[in-house]
What we know:
Distance between the termini: 24 Å
CATH topology of the largest domain: Aminopeptidase
Order of helices and strands: HHEEEHEHEEEEEHEEEHEEHEHEH
Strand order of the largest sheet: 1-2-4-3-5-16-6-15
Strand content: 25-35%
Number of strands: 16
Helix content: 25-40%
CATH class of the largest domain: Alpha Beta
CATH superfamily of the largest domain: Zn peptidases
Radius of gyration: 23 Å
Number of domains: 2
Amino acid sequence: xxxxxxxxxxISWRRDIHSHPELSQHEERTSDIAANVLEGLGxxxxxxIGGFGVIGLLRGKGEGKTIALRADMDALPLNExxxxxxxxxTQGVMHACGHDTHTAMLxxxxxxxxxxxxxxxGNIKFIFQPAEEFNPTGGAPGMIxxxxxxxxxxxxxxxxxxxxxxxxxxxxxxxxxxxxxxxxIFLTVHGKTAHGxxxxxxxxxxxxxxxxITGLQSIISRSVSPLDSAVLTIGTIHGGxxxxxxxxxxxxxxxVRTLNPKIQSxxxxxxxxxxxxxxxxxxSSCDVEYVKGYPPLVNDSSLASLAAESVRKIxxxxxxxxxxxxxxxxxxxxFFARERPALMAWLGCRPSTVDAKDMAMLHNTKFNxxxxxxxxxxxxxxxxxxxFLNAL
Length: 392
């Protein structure tokens, strides 16, 4: 195992970053930590790429391919409830998606690989990316526009995400469709205000909204093939002024998740037609705004096979899970995967003594990944990078 020499330092970095979380587009302190470590290792470092993004370039013993290893850095607007001694010191901000662990593990991998320059030809780029949670924009597109995949040209990228559904000691890898597209919908229902006792004199935007919410689900059940996966969720509803007043406006906001780009392309028309049609049938109207966000994340099959063998090489056959199903969560790593062959692995972070139903999941105020997973994450980065660069 490569990670043991730097493990205590990785844990220290993670806990420091966890205590000082920063929201998307505000990752100044975290990016400084990453850049300072990379500079201390003698890497070629660029700061402020696509915001607070950081790139570290490690050159091997000779010419060859270039692989990029990526970690995200931003936190979420949540109040932490873990009770950890290193819990967030910033009110209303928490690392509830494990980006603190991703950053720390990639720094650990940089430490290991910087001591192994004579064991590979080519280059390794370490990408510390901001604003992964900043849907629908994300942080990857900004880094891509500013040349993160060039000079030298990146041939492939790998990343990981801590995944509490899997036990610590497992690395789950899937070829092909891995995670979903994540789009946003904004609906504004317009009715007519009236006294709550005289609904016939108004046009109830709340009742119309209720019919629209129900009607939208028929898109998934009747307009999407049962062989395709899609989710349409309305997450917020805002409307009304007083208990006895029929409101004239209700605002709805939701998310649409799809795996098939063809299904994703159909959703704006289906949602607009359904929402407007229902509203008009009830004498109201509805404005629809559909905002495309992250694309589907598709893992490269060759990288998936290589990474699985890399993990088995260090930790044995039982350490790898070949995932049967994709997940409808989203990741802006998908923007990188549209540009180059790429692979996102899921890193088990649930202690074996904790049942999955008792483990706080991602984006939960009590999410606390097992730090025992760090060894497996660092080794995944290191061995996969070495095997990719040394492959004939």
